[in-house]
Amino acid sequence: MRRSTATTEYLKECMGTALLELMREKPLEKISIEEMTARADVGRSTYFRYFKSKEEVLSFKICCLWKHFDEEKYISAYSGTDDPVAARLFLEFCLSLRDISDLLYATGHQNCILDAYLQILRPAEGDGGLLAYYHSSMTAYALFGLVNAWILRGYQESPEEMERIVRDWLKDAGGKE
């Protein structure tokens, strides 16, 4: 029997939750696929069907959390704009993931965050062509650079203060406000 997309997404998200829980106990490299899938109450074959690495599981989990946040805050309404309010909402999302981000940074797996940003911002196949593809990549890297600096500073600024920083930067760069 074929699973529904919602069921599949749920099982994949459960693996992400389980992996994050296990990472609080031991390094990612010491976590076996069997441990992760057992904790998630998912078969090993489900992992191998959908993922190539544990890092992909972590990126997928961040993407799921983004989707839930977007459903609550309607961030996708700003899609394709350079509106600084979108930046503030995005930074609120990042702050809501502070415990996960801190865990990924502490274990040297912050690249999973960048991978998630790339997935979140990547246009659908055939949407916008080459320019949209490169624009999404540049945006993902810019956001990661901004969030990376914010995390390394210990989230000293609020999302509102970070929005102001983005506005000032855009103004200085000759961009829109």
Automatic annotation (TrEMBL):
Sorted UniProt keywords: DNA-binding
Record Pfam families: TetR_N (PF00440)
Signal peptide: none
Matching InterPro entries: Homeodomain-like_sf (IPR009057), HTH_TetR (IPR001647)
Residues within the DNA-binding region(s): 32-51
Domain HTH tetR-type: 9-69
Gene Ontology molecular function terms on file: DNA binding
TM regions (residue ranges): none
DNA-binding in keyword set: yes
Protein name per UniProt: TetR/AcrR family transcriptional regulator
Organism: Candidatus Alectryocaccomicrobium excrementavium
Organism taxonomic ancestry: Bacteria, Bacillati, Bacillota, Clostridia, Candidatus Alectryocaccomicrobium
